[in-house]
């Protein structure tokens, strides 16, 4: 199983951060289905201050390109992404339209 780690910032506002966390306590079923259908077998999101880290474990069928295409064609995913963007902000190094950025592994024990 492959693992990917990604990062994203939240708007630095406590109420906004709390609202984002509240949404993730009750993720819409259609979103969970789109995640698992893409080949993601495990996904976790961690937060420190306003920085998020996502860890995804994926099977051999997963590709970022296929996930992006499926998400683009899914109105419920687009609705979720639009809602989440109210709370998120791109990392300083992100290109226009980029949200979650892949991190670089620098150590493994």
Automatic annotation (TrEMBL):
Q: Which domain of life is it from?
A: Bacteria
Molecular function GO terms recorded: racemase and epimerase activity, acting on carbohydrates and derivatives
Family annotation (Pfam families): rhaM
Q: Which InterPro entries match?
A: Carb_Metab_Mutarotase, Dimeric_a/b-barrel, Rham/fucose_mutarotase
- Entry's Gene3D superfamilies? 3.30.70.100
The name under which this protein is listed is L-rhamnose mutarotase
Q: What is the lineage of its organism?
A: Bacteria, Pseudomonadati, Bacteroidota, Flavobacteriia, Flavobacteriales
